[in-house]
Amino acid sequence: MTSPLLKLTQINKSFGPIDVLNDISLEVKAGEVLCLLGDNGAGKSTLIKILSGVHKPTSGSMEINGNAIAFDSPRDASDNGIATVHQFGGTFPLMSIGRSFFVGAEPTKRWGPFTIYDRSRANEIAVREMRELGITRIDDGDRLVGGLSGGERQALAIARAVHFGAKLLILDEPTAALGVKEAAHVLRIVLQARQKGIAVVFITHNVIHALTVGDHFAVLIHGSKAADFRKGEKSREEITDLMAGGEQMAELEAEIESYMVASTGHSEPARQAL
Ligand SMILES: Nc1ncnc2c1ncn2[C@@H]1O[C@H](COP(=O)(O)OP(=O)(O)OP(=O)(O)O)[C@@H](O)[C@H]1O
Ligand SMILES: [Mg+2]
Question: Residues enclosing ligand 1, CB less than 6 A?
Fold first, then answer.
């Protein structure tokens, strides 16, 4: 048994009177993907904001490689090897690929008496690291991030994390806004990061995406951990039901169908729920 890279013990988080997380205990191992599942508002983003130093837990403890840690800032978390790609934004559309790759850690060169940003080196490294992850359509690091597709932006953020030696990569719904092909690409990149021995926390609503990459799964319901299991221990249907808060999705679908029949006279073609 390998010991966990990251261990959370009984993490609670309240915002004033609102309790958002209750007694969350979790372990993430190096070279494994932990999928964090749960419906809207379950507390997934709040949990990863605690892991990435954005919020402090109200109580509970965190350990990295067996050592107790507490983060004062996102910078503190990233200095401890935690790289987070947040759910909304995170990249600056008007920044070049090279700039955005190195933001806060720009390579420099001497120019006479001055030290200046080494643009060609930054661009070259950024483009190369993206290529490593299979993004081969980009050959110019001067291109603006705003012109990249959603999948390419995710790849840029992941490539950056890998380059700077992240031990734990946290992705908050990286595939949510992507088409089928782009999502598959991001999933492949997640598996590449895992293969390099990086621990990944992958948040998604999509059970198929989760089952494709996950080694370990945790389901949050109303801020509590409702289930914690490993690959192969639950079926897709069981996971979907859990995510819906324990309601039987099959029953819900039957209800919707009878509603459709009653209101339109015909049923919808089989819905693509996932
Ligand atoms: N700063 C805050 N102050 C008060 N309540 C908050 C704050 N941040 C989050 N919450 C509440 O905590 C709950 C969990 O939010 P969170 O964003 O963690 O959910 P989530 O699981 O990521 O949902 P989604 O799947 O929609 O992204 C929500 O009810 C939200 O309104
Ligand atoms: Mg969220």
Answer: 15, 18, 20, 38, 40-46, 87
Which residue's CA is minimally distant from atom 25 of ligand 1?
40
Quick one: DSSP state of residue 42?
S
Question: How remote is the CA of residue 89 from the centroid of ligand 2, in Å?
Answer: 12
What is the distance between the alpha carbons of residues 55 and 72, in angstroms, rounded to a whole number? 9
N residues, the chain: 274
Q: Has residue 238 been placed in a domain?
A: yes
Q: Which domain holds residue 207?
A: 6-243
For 231-253, the pLDDT digits (tens) are 999 999 888 888 876 666 667 77
- Which listed ligand is nearest to 47 at the C-alpha? 1
- 262 falls within a domain: no
CA of 157 relative to ligand 1 center, distance in Å: 23
- Ligand 1 atom index nearest CA of 87: 27
Measured over the CA atoms of residue 225, residue 7, residue 162 and residue 32, the dihedral's sign is negative
* Number of domains within the chain: 1
Q: Residue 173 CA: which ligand 1 atom is closest?
A: 27
Rounded CA-CA distance 206/48 in Å is 18
In a domain, 270, yes or no: no
Q: What is the pLDDT of residue 15?
A: 96
Those residues whose beta carbon sits under 5 angstroms from the ion ligand 2 are: 44-45, 87
CATH number reported for the structural domain that contains residue 84 in this entry: 3.40.50.300
Per the DSSP assignment, residues forming a β-bridge with 149 are: none
273 located within any domain: no
- Predicted pLDDT at 37: 93
Of the bound ligands, which one is closest to the alpha carbon of residue 44? Answer: 1
Q: State yes or no: pLDDT of 267 exceeds 70.
A: no
DSSP string, 178-216: --HHHHHHHHHHHHHHHHTT-EEEEE-S-HHHHHHH-SE
